[in-house]
Design brief:
By secondary structure, the protein is of the alpha/beta class. The protein is 42% helix and 12% strand. The protein folds into 2 domains: 111 residues, Rossmann fold (3-Layer(aba) Sandwich), CATH 3.40.50; 65 residues, DNA polymerase, domain 1, CATH 1.10.150. The chain is built from 8 helices and 7 strands.
């Protein structure tokens, strides 16, 4: 398991908890960054996605990120093709992902006590495989992905949908997030937000 160091979570003041997945609950960001490097290099754009930009864009849907990279670097990448290549490159690395110890322990402590959901900018297929690999698929009442909403993070849609599916008012939900876009999305949904530090990435 990866660790994020000393960190505490509130023990009360919420009726449900919504977790981001990548970089929050699961230490998958190194694998995602390597997958981006591989996919972009495949399409002649190797080296354009710097680590600090990668983290700044964390939580956003892959297609949105490719569109932004096109705008930023005057590229003509096909968002769908790059997204598919990135997904395949990540799936090859799926065996390297682990739980983030402190966040997973918090989630496990809540099982059977309050409803829990995943709200992620990833695609459903990739997130379901990720949850299966780390053995926590059955911990959550709902899993809401970028495939389920019109607008991904930093729009609040994913968090609002998760709250609605659990039957809990957004203001009664605690969101656990690591990325700026996700934190903003949860705040826009009216939720209490805990920002957790991500484990470091190297590529």
């Amino acid at each position: 398991m990866a660790s994020i160091g000393p960190f505490s979570f509130p023990s009360s003041g919420y009726d449900a908890v919504i977790f981001d997945c990548d970089g929050t609950l699961v230490d998958s960001m190194p694998a995602h960054f390597e997958a981006w490097c591989e996919a972009l290099a495949l399409y002649g754009a190797g080296g354009v996605f710097k680590e600090d930009v990668f983290f700044a864009m964390g939580g956003r849907p892959t297609l949105d990120i490719v569109v932004e990279l096109n705008d930023e670097y005057n590229l003509k990448l096909d968002p769908t093709a790059v997204a598919m290549a990135k997904r395949e490159a990540f799936l090859k690395r799926l065996n390297t992902v682990t739980l983030i110890e402190e966040v997973a322990a918090f989630a496990e402590s809540l099982r059977g006590k309050v409803p829990m959901a995943i709200a992620t900018g990833g695609s459903r297929m990739v997130i379901e495989k990720t949850l299966q690999v780390v053995g926590i698929s059955d911990w959550f009442e709902e899993v809401v992905t970028a495939d389920d909403v019109a607008e991904g993070k930093p729009a609040p849609d994913i968090f609002l949908r998760a709250a609605k599916l659990m039957g809990v008012a957004p203001t009664k939900c605690l969101a656990v997030e690591d990325a700026p876009a996700g934190i903003l999305a949860a705040q826009r949904a009216g939720m209490q937000v805990i920002g957790v530090p991500s484990p470091l990435v190297s590529c």
